[in-house]
């Protein structure tokens, strides 16, 4: 019974937020026709204007990490030119949506379940922070081009929110990824954050899953290369090993290391 009530509330909020979205800043140009048909679409019927990609979220268990499920131009081409899109934000206990920017639209966030700490920083470096709760239910506006933050501080319960955007493609610029996974020189970042290169490299290593193998030590381990933004120094390079040159013991499978640039 509780699940049915939750489903009804979820879909009611999803539908009613179309009326609210007019508060958001439209980021799309007007189109001279009723709608835009992609070149790879040959049949336009009710299915073209229907998106079911969010259906599996209703009644499902929280994901292991923060997850944003979008209904934007990429997932739902019928939105092209209509200045509207959605994102369903799932926050397991104690998780965050890393600080980010939406360059082409404001964000109107509606908290469906749980509690959520939200906020943004304006151009004067002032933080506007608020803790949203579902009793009473709350709506929060995030201005475009400002850094947003969203955090579920509850260590035991998940949170669910719906974000509406005034653009079919609001865009998302993740602040941590932009700074630490795009190849910006370690020295530049260290000076900017008034820290040392080792700290910057530790931050970069934590944001990338790619571990670059280096010199093999006496324990057959690898010395990691933690700067994916550039090629490793020559002393860390490994020459490729071919099967005829390296015969492993019978019954062992050999996996060859490779650098990911």
UniProtKB/TrEMBL annotation:
<feature type="binding site">
    <location>
        <position position="97"/>
    </location>
    <ligand>
        <name>oxalate</name>
    </ligand>
</feature>
<keyword id="KW-0464">Manganese</keyword>
<feature type="domain" description="Cupin type-1">
    <location>
        <begin position="55"/>
        <end position="201"/>
    </location>
</feature>
<dbReference type="InterPro" id="IPR001929">
    <property type="entry name" value="Germin"/>
</dbReference>
<protein>
    <recommendedName>
        <fullName>Cupin type-1 domain-containing protein</fullName>
    </recommendedName>
</protein>
<dbReference type="GO" id="GO:0048046">
    <property type="term" value="C:apoplast"/>
</dbReference>
<keyword id="KW-0479">Metal-binding</keyword>
<keyword id="KW-0732">Signal</keyword>
<keyword id="KW-0052">Apoplast</keyword>
<dbReference type="Pfam" id="PF00190">
    <property type="entry name" value="Cupin_1"/>
</dbReference>
<feature type="signal peptide">
    <location>
        <begin position="1"/>
        <end position="26"/>
    </location>
</feature>
<feature type="binding site">
    <location>
        <position position="102"/>
    </location>
    <ligand>
        <name>Mn(2+)</name>
    </ligand>
</feature>
<feature type="binding site">
    <location>
        <position position="107"/>
    </location>
    <ligand>
        <name>Mn(2+)</name>
    </ligand>
</feature>
<keyword id="KW-0325">Glycoprotein</keyword>
<dbReference type="GO" id="GO:0030145">
    <property type="term" value="F:manganese ion binding"/>
</dbReference>
<feature type="binding site">
    <location>
        <position position="102"/>
    </location>
    <ligand>
        <name>oxalate</name>
    </ligand>
</feature>
<feature type="binding site">
    <location>
        <position position="100"/>
    </location>
    <ligand>
        <name>Mn(2+)</name>
    </ligand>
</feature>
<feature type="binding site">
    <location>
        <position position="107"/>
    </location>
    <ligand>
        <name>oxalate</name>
    </ligand>
</feature>
<feature type="binding site">
    <location>
        <position position="148"/>
    </location>
    <ligand>
        <name>Mn(2+)</name>
    </ligand>
</feature>
<dbReference type="InterPro" id="IPR006045">
    <property type="entry name" value="Cupin_1"/>
</dbReference>
């Amino acid at each position: 019974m509780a699940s049915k009530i939750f489903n009804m509330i979820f879909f009611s909020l999803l539908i009613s937020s179309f009326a609210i979205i007019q508060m958001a800043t439209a980021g799309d140009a007007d189109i001279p026709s009723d709608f835009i048909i992609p070149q790879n679409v040959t049949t336009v019927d009710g299915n073209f204007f229907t998106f079911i990609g969010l259906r599996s979220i209703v009644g499902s268990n929280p994901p292991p990490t923060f997850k944003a499920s979008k209904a934007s131009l990429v997932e739902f081409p019928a939105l092209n030119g209509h200045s509207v899109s959605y994102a369903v934000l799932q926050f397991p206990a104690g998780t965050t949506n890393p600080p980010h920017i939406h360059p082409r639209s404001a964000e109107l966030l509606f908290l469906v379940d749980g509690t959520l700490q939200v906020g943004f920083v304006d151009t004067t470096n002032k933080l506007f922070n608020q803790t949203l709760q579902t009793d009473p239910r709350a709506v929060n506006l995030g201005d475009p081009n400002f850094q947003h933050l969203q955090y579920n501080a509850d260590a035991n319960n998940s949170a669910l929110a719906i974000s509406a955007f005034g653009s079919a493609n609001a865009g998302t610029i993740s602040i941590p990824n932009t700074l630490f996974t795009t190849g910006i020189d370690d020295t530049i970042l260290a000076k900017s954050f008034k820290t040392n290169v080792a700290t910057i490299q530790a931050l970069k290593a934590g944001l990338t899953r790619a571990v670059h193998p280096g010199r093999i030590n006496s324990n057959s381990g690898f010395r990691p290369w933690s700067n994916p933004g550039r090629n490793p120094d020559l002393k860390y390079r490994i020459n490729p090993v071919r099967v005829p040159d390296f015969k492993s013991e019978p019954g062992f499978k050999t996996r060859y290391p490779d650098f990911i640039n």
